[in-house]
# Entry
Amino acid sequence: MAHEGNMKKLHIIGGGLAGSEAAWQAARRGIHVVIHEMRNENRKTFAHETDTLAELVCSNSFRNDDHTCSAIGLLHEEMRRCGSIIMKCADENKVPAGGALAMDRHGFSAAVQAALEAHPNIEIVREEIDELPSSDFGYVIVATGPLTSEKMAESILKVTGEDHLSFFDAIAPIVHKDSINFDVAWMQSRYDKGEGKDYVNCPMSEAQYYDFIDALLEADKTEFKDWEKNSPRPNSLPVMEKSKEEFVPYFDGCLPIEVMAERGKDTLAFGPMKPVGLTNPHNSTERPFGVVQLRQDNKLGTLYNIVGFQTKMKYGAQEKVFRTIPGLEKAKFARLGGIHRNTFINSPVLLDESLRLKKAPHIRFAGQVTGVEGYVESAASGLMAGRFAAAEILGDELAAPPLTTALGALLNHVTDGHMVRELSERELRKKTFQPMNINFGLFPPFEKKVKKKERKVAYCTRGLEDLKSWV
# Structure
């Protein structure tokens, strides 16, 4: 039986985007929230650079911000209408990025932390909690993220009896703008979207492109540790057919650039390096064979990250290979790329419709550890977990968001959206659960037929209308 004093509190383990958003949502409803964050001025992780809450690690972009025809844009808007602190701070620290929402990463994290520190109902404790708390601890949200500590992962396995799944995310390098050669590079957004000059573009001829691909494939790569090599791979995650690392799972939306190159030498030319929608002012008569784009990373405009260039190359190889890119011959790197392991649980089996752990219902999970993929999706799950927990503590009932909303579609995927409810637990365990970004494939179909070219707009219109009752 939980102690009475603890029943009025909500403990959140992890101060990332999900934990921060969960804390904000619960605190706004009068709940006393304690955030337990393991990072401090003396302790970081191998992926984090600071001890600031809600630190952006892999990218500084929340992707497409158009809520009229984009699933992720719809999720942005739904969160804004739910009073999201993550979206508020993102909007306040926005940097040019065409149709995407990108932020000054340090300004964003500092703003989130300042808001949480200033809230009278929120307490931040710098300490590690390395196992799932008992019910005596009170209500808990576990938002430990993809870098869940080994001890906490072991505790989750012990309580749930599950084998957790893992995959890998990669990090892109960041370049100082004043080291870019603008006699070769130029500023332009594809098809002149946004302000029209939101990206730095570095053009490659056909010969330069294939030389670059060869260099990528030959470069020294990071060696995986034994425990990483043995990571279980969901059947639906990509398998690298011709790689020496067939056993290593990656998330398809965040592949290292050299892994993409292994899939075919032209893969990048049709992916992050596609030359469409751009005109080189230094050579308007010849279309580049490939283009490397860099996106503004801070408000000052002094740092730019190389878009889509997540990598597991060793540091020395990165500097050598990336300086072969025209315009980056003398590039100075504020940060080089890297790779880290993600951990997530078998949420459809383990969690109920309000993200509670079925075997220990005083505990909820939120963030990437639930199997959502992406900054915004992680924060969105935190938003829902925070609201669900607050309602339970206050003795209220809060239904799940409508399935027709982006929030509801994402929650439905995490809890049992790709399962059939009538299946037994044994049958459920045979199913493959994989991380997922928000996309229109998660939304229920329309009752009446809608023309294909009108569906995206219709999904967004329906979602925002149906959200009103839940907000």
